[in-house]
Model the fold of this input.
Amino acid sequence: MPMPDLARRPIPLLILTASLLLGLWLAWRFVQPVNVTIESVVQDLPLRVEAAPAQVQARPGSMVRVHFRIQNVDPAGQPVRGGPGRSPTDRGAPQVEVFNLTCGGAHTYLPGPEQEYAVNFRVRSLGLLDRRELTLRHLFSPPD
Done:
């Protein structure tokens, strides 16, 4: 009984298998979820800031919404400038694209109960060198 052609030539079969596995890995790399840690940095302000949730799994291209709960613990209103900041691990173009940031820009936070602000963002697809663990950082600082 004659042997099949591929069985007599193991090299083409190995190349075909390796190419298929590499192709599947590359496809998964572009759609796998990314772990995003949400953090806030408060610079010299009497604010208590909490991100909810503090960590999310974001699928590339999908819109994700998180909330910042902000409370002014000082008896006087606090003028604040807020906005997204880069994580120390960011290199090159950012992987996170922020769309709607209700606690960004100039605000005055009044004393009293906590206020909730939404942040909508999207994670771009992973390239070969991008990270699966990201940090979305929001900076709160006194106005200039």
Summary: The two ends are 85 Å apart (CA to CA).
